[in-house]
Amino acid sequence: MNLILFEDELVDQLSPITLTRPAWAVHCGSFRLIDLLNLDAFSKIATVVRPHLKETVAADWPQFSSEDELRDSSEPTLWLNARLVPSQHTAQAIAALAASSPDSFAVKSGDSLVAALARSSDPLSTVRQAPEQLPADIDQANDWELFERPHDVIRHHMDHCGASVQHRIETGDYQQLTDGVFVARGQRQTTLPDCCHFDTTNGAVVFEQNIAVGPFCFFRGPVHIADNCKVSEHSSLKDAVAVSHTCKVGGEIEGVQTSPWSNKQHFGFLGHAWIGSWINLGAGTCNSDLKNTYGTVNMVYGDKKVSTGMQFVGCVMGDYSRTAINTSIYTGKTIGVGSTLYGLTTQNVPSFVNWAQALNQYGVVPPEVIATIQRRMFARRSVEQRDCDIQLINSVFELTSGTRKPQWATDPIPK
User: Fold this and answer.
1) Residue 173 within a domain
2) Cα angle vertex 329, ends 280, 236, to 5°?
3) What angle separates helix 387-399 from helix 367-380, to the nearest 10 degrees?
4) Average pLDDT, the chain
5) Residue 159 maps to which CATH number?
6) Are residues 27 and 84 in the same domain?
7) Degrees (nearest 5) of the Cα angle 212, 218, 219?
8) How many whole angstroms separate alpha carbon 158 and alpha carbon 152?
9) In angstroms, rounded to a whole number, what is the distance separating the alpha carbons of residues 231 and 251?
């Protein structure tokens, strides 16, 4: 059996998270969808992504086949929606589908195609957009979870982080240091200071390899910290925190998923947030994750106000964004790709802008400036900047051109 991970027409609703990555590469609860798939079980694997992502996906995932190669295959193909939430429930459901015997089937959740088993020769347009034309039974299932909006990533992170951390313990090679505290075995095993304190009542705390933990830190699980991270002294990480590899974190962090290569190593509060890659939060940066009314948080997407149904929602930050010292971000805000924030931020911030709301200053940042910053950041981590990395910045700049304004944005919040 072959596998195709496909992005559908709703993937753009996840902006800014999916502006720079396919939906199957979004970290949530410490996993990406691609991490939970048994790739060895498939003969060939391909992905259907938006055009501006093709070069970076081909460079980052050279083992993937082309869609044409799969179409020429005699084996059936399992199609999976890239917006599937990376949870243990999803992984088990996918495994059950892969092991099922029908010649063809299609599973939908609402109007979205979740999965389909089809002939390799079936055209992309039929599988993605008109599964009813397949010679298959269509199952309308409500227990499959799909990302719909950016706040869904935070919600599912909170829901599944504990189970995901427990899955790592059950399937990995760890040494248990004390009740509920685990460290990965290996040549670069993490050593923890004696003065750290752990509360594992509601979930385990798991450290991977080569992590530097400063003294007098507090961890309340579930918490997962990936390889090559640094935790600053006197930090507090609690209640569903997942730090991806090669990050620096510090201060008070609660209910947060970070992506690789990002820094939040100074004092300040970060709560119920999703943080992209190559982000730097200046000292004293704080976000709000609770309204003064204690009501559910609404988020603004384009010209629509959407209720999250959640009481705690912080911010969503796209890749390559930065904050100056003492930046404050209001509840439920999205920050685009490649933007810099100064001071108070009470509105959503588009991509590629300098945003100093308190000073009434606003300016567009050209993509070549972000590419220069990218090159400098990459060099600090011994990462090579590739042509496809620069191409992605230029493409995202063009894709987001309609969201920027030439002067300070004073439009009222949509009703």
Assistant:
1) yes
2) 65
3) 140
4) 91
5) 2.160.10.10
6) yes
7) 85
8) 10
9) 9
Cα–Cα–Cα angle for 104, 108, 114, rounded to 5 degrees: 80
pLDDT at 244 over 50: yes
Range of the domain at 155: 150-403
Do 251 and 236 touch, CB atoms closer than 8 A? yes
**Scanning the structure block, which residue is given the tokens 């010679």?**
135
* pLDDT score, position 325: 97
- Do both 162 and 262 map to the same domain? yes
Q: Are residues 374 and 246 in the same domain?
A: yes
Work out the pLDDT band at 291, boundaries 50, 70, 90: very high
**Helix ranges restricted to H, 290-358:** none
Q: Of 117, 140, 163, which one is at a domain's C-terminal end?
A: 140
DSSP 8-class letter at 392: H
335 and 265 housed in the same domain? yes
Could you please report the per-residue DSSP string of 149-176? SHHHHHHHHHHHHHHHHHHHHHHS-EEE
Spatial distance between the Cα atoms of 272 and 251, rounded to a whole number of angstroms: 14
**Which tokens is 24 given?**
């199957």
| CATH value at residue 57 | 3.90.550
Q: What is the mean pLDDT of residues 317-330?
A: 98
**Max intra-chain CA distance, the chain:** 63
- Residue 233's pLDDT band, with cuts at 50, 70 and 90, is very high
Is a pLDDT exceeding 70 seen at residue 321?
yes
- Measured at the alpha carbon of residue 288, what is the angle toward residues 286 and 292, in degrees to the nearest 5? 140
User: What amino acid is encoded at 295 in this protein?
Assistant: G
pLDDT, tens only, 362-407: 889 999 999 999 999 999 999 999 999 999 999 999 999 999 874 4
C-alpha–C-alpha distance, residues 335 and 339, integer Å: 7
**Amino acid of residue 340:** T
- The answer to whether 244 touches 228, Cβ cutoff 8 Å, is no
Q: Is the peptide bond before 76 cis (omega within 30 degrees of 0)?
A: no
Same domain, 134 and 19: yes
Q: Tell me, yes or no, whether 413 lies in a domain.
A: no
Domain assignment of residue 177, yes or no: yes
Asked which of 100, 117, 140 is the last residue of a domain, the reply is 140
Distance between CA atoms of residues 322 and 364, nearest Å: 14
Q: What is the pLDDT of residue 138?
A: 67
Q: Are residues 265 and 168 in the same domain?
A: yes
89 shares its domain with 209: no
Q: Count how many domains the chain has.
A: 2
CB count, 10 Å around CB of 368?
Answer: 12
Same domain (yes/no): 226, 349: yes
- State how far the Cα of 72 lies from the Cα of 247, in Å rounded to an integer: 42
